[in-house]
Specification:
alpha/beta; 2-enoyl-CoA Hydratase, Chain A, domain 1; Lyase 2-enoyl-coa Hydratase, Chain  A, domain 2; 2 domains; 4-stranded mixed beta sheet; 10 strands; 48% helix; binds acetoacetyl-coenzyme A
């Protein structure tokens, strides 16, 4: 049975995780399904943004599926973690801008999924956290690494080692979210953000994300060299000529994504 829905809205696609019986928790089939959709969307050159959300009112994703992990042997658990990393990599290195629209609980693997997205906006009722240590395990879908990179080591350690759940407003203050909105406005705001991004030069948006994302894993000098190469590549595009000419001619640009 399909646990992930895909919808197109102009230059955006919406992926909705839909496993209400487990608050959208990620079991292996759902992870594989989500990854297959993400990889297929990565090939779609008409898209600019991919939005990720959870079905229902209560949860974005309540974590990796605990029931499915209960009796895992160590090597199977390692493989499970690696499958999670592969899924998150499909989002992190997507040519599109990925936006998590966090409509409720984003816990454990759910928060890790959201952290692999480029942008995160949440409804004011959402709660976020890495409760894994309370289950006797550690975050296994990138949480031990990405949280510290996003909010700094001290705050990440506090959140991860206490396993505490925090409300969206606190996550906003910590820099984990870029916006908190009323529950009934979440998808509208997420789509408006996608729409705003899609008005820019598509190749430039892709290269800007690529330069920032890949650069994070490099020493600064190498990252700056990579930025210079990406900057140079922009000048091979129609969109650079159009964008700069439109500015000089005081008119809106007509980007073609090439
Ligand atoms: N896995 C499997 N099932 C889950 C689940 C999960 N992560 N989270 C919720 N469910 C199931 C519950 O077992 C329950 O099922 P039943 O009706 O069959 O009993 C159903 O969803 C509804 O959940 P609750 O009755 O618990 O709902 P609640 O409103 O009382 O509480 C909640 C909501 C606080 C989110 C609570 O469900 C909860 O704490 N869930 C677990 C959160 C968690 O620990 N996530 C981390 C998982 S480990 C992980 O993610 C590892 C990793 O990094 C890879």
């Amino acid at each position: 049975m399909a646990n992930v829905r895909v919808e197109r809205r102009g230059k955006a696609a919406i992926l909705t995780i839909d496993r209400p019986q487990a608050l959208n928790a990620l079991d292996r089939p759902t992870m594989e399904e989500l990854r297959a959709h993400a990889e297929a969307l990565n090939q779609d050159r008409d898209l600019v943004c991919v939005l990720l959300t959870g079905a229902g009112e209560k949860a974005f994703v309540a974590g990796a599926d605990i029931r499915a992990m209960l009796d895992l042997a160590p090597l199977d658990a390692q493989a499970h973690s690696e499958a999670g990393h592969a899924l998150l990599r499909a989002l992190l290195h997507s040519p599109h801008v990925t936006i998590a629209a966090i409509n409720g609980y984003a816990l454990g693997g759910g928060l890790e999924l959201a952290m692999a997205c480029d942008l995160r906006i949440a409804s004011e009722t959402a709660q976020l956290g890495l409760p894994e240590v309370g289950l006797g395990v550690i975050p296994g879908f990138g949480g031990t690494q990405r949280l510290a990179r996003l909010i700094g080591e001290a705050r990440a350690k506090e959140l991860m080692l206490t396993g505490e759940r925090i409300p969206a407003q606190r996550a906003l203050e910590l820099g984990l979210l870029s916006k908190v909105v009323p529950k009934d406005q979440l998808m509208k705001e997420a789509l408006a953000l996608a729409e705003r991004i899609a008005q820019n030069g598509p190749v430039a948006v892709r290269l800007a994300k690529h330069s920032l994302q890949r650069g994070l894993d490099m020493p600064l000098d190498a990252a700056l060299a990579f930025e210079a190469a990406c900057f140079g590549a922009c000048f091979a595009t129609h969109d650079q000529k159009e964008g700069m000419r439109a500015f000089m001619e005081k008119r809106p640009p007509k980007f073609e994504g090439r």
